[in-house]
Design goal:
Helix 6 runs antiparallel to helix 7. The protein folds into three domains: 96 residues, no CATH class; 130 residues, Jelly Rolls, CATH 2.60.120; 71 residues, Phage tail protein beta-alpha-beta fold (3-Layer(bab) Sandwich). The protein is of the alpha+beta class. The strands form three sheets. Strands 1, 2, 3, 4, 5, 6, 7, 8, 9, 10, 11, 12 and 13 form a 13-stranded mixed sheet that branches. A three-stranded mixed sheet has the order 15-18-17. A hairpin with a 2-residue loop joins strand 17 and strand 18.
């Protein structure tokens, strides 16, 4: 399946709101040299700010009851002689119109979502291929300078086509994973993000921390971030285990029963529930079929002599 390329990364809602706020300040009665200096600093901080401000200015020019000249060209600008009520209405219109303008572009961005138990393989226009695991949401924002993917939740196996002039960047959990041509897995869930490099090289960096050097992974390494630990953890898992879901399998190696249940629940609408906290730490190993939660629960019950029962549309494990 091919996707329509987005010319450039679309502005966030925060940037659109900031652009609208600057327009109203620059056209307001409280415009001062300090306000203008702040505006110039904001404009220079990110090239996306300038693009967004230009688009918002075009909207401002067509809003009724606003006759001030374009803001970027004003040197000795005087506040327009409109009543505060009419000016407030125009300011509200500019914000609403700007958000609608941005939403139009966000809706056009290619996005993919999989339900419980669903998996997809998508071939992108640049020759890259993404294998999307169950319960995953992601969107694309391609430009002439880079290829950017936003992983909101879930797990994706990326096979990236080489293009040195356009880095491939995956944004997940406040981190950016940058690759030029490689294969890797990114998994992002509430409070935890992990990256496993299968082949090639990737750089993993905090999105908002530009002064800290990124972590370079070697083939076979995994880096994990979570809310409970200040520093990331790097290890070397079995790659076949990490990507076994692509073969319809869940491979467990001395995995806590609670973690094993959470993994099996990713692929089956009939959820497993552990009713007894005393059995949650039991270790589980083996290879299981995705979507067969009942078979897994029955195996665990036989292995440890616990009870497995079905009620209320769920599978219960207890002593």
């Amino acid at each position: 399946m091919s996707d329509e390329r987005v010319p450039e990364q679309e502005p966030s809602r925060e940037v659109v709101a900031e652009a609208a706020a600057w327009i109203t300040r620059l056209h307001g009665s409280r415009r001062t040299p300090e306000v203008e200096a702040g505006f110039r600093d904001w404009l220079a901080a990110d090239e996306q700010h300038a693009r967004t401000f230009e688009g918002m200015t075009e909207i401002w020019d067509i809003v009724p009851s606003v006759s001030a000249p374009p803001v970027p060209r004003v040197q000795r600008w005087q506040p327009p002689r409109h009543s505060l009520q009419r000016f407030g209405m125009a300011a509200m219109l500019i914000v609403l119109a700007g958000l609608s303008w941005a939403s139009y572009h966000w809706l056009r961005a290619p996005a993919y979502a999989t339900a419980i138990g669903e998996q997809r393989i998508v071939n992108l226009d640049d020759g890259s291929r993404v294998s999307i695991n169950s319960r995953t949401q992601l969107s694309l924002a391609y430009s002439d300078a880079e290829r950017r993917v936003f992983l909101d939740q879930g797990e994706v196996f990326f096979e990236v086509a080489h293009d040195a002039s356009r880095p491939f960047v995956v944004v997940a959990g406040g981190r950016e994973v940058t690759a030029i041509g490689t294969s890797f897995v990114v998994r992002h869930e509430a409070g935890a993000t992990s990256v496993v490099l299968v082949e090639g090289k990737v750089a993993v960096a905090e999105r908002d921390q530009k002064t800290q050097a990124p972590v370079m992974l070697a083939a076979g390494e995994r880096i994990r971030f979570d809310s409970e630990h200040a520093s990331p953890d790097i290890d070397r898992p079995a790659v076949d285990t990490v990507a076994s879901w692509r073969r319809g399998q869940v491979m467990l190696d001395e995995t806590l029963l609670s973690d094993a249940v959470a993994e099996m629940n990713r692929y089956d609408k009939k959820q497993i529930v552990i009713d007894d906290a005393g059995i949650a730490s039991l270790p589980v190993s083996g290879v299981y079929r995705t979507g067969d939660s009942l078979g897994f629960a029955r195996m665990a019950a036989r292995m440890y002599g616990i009870e497995c029962s079905e009620r209320d549309g769920r599978i219960h494990l207890h002593r």
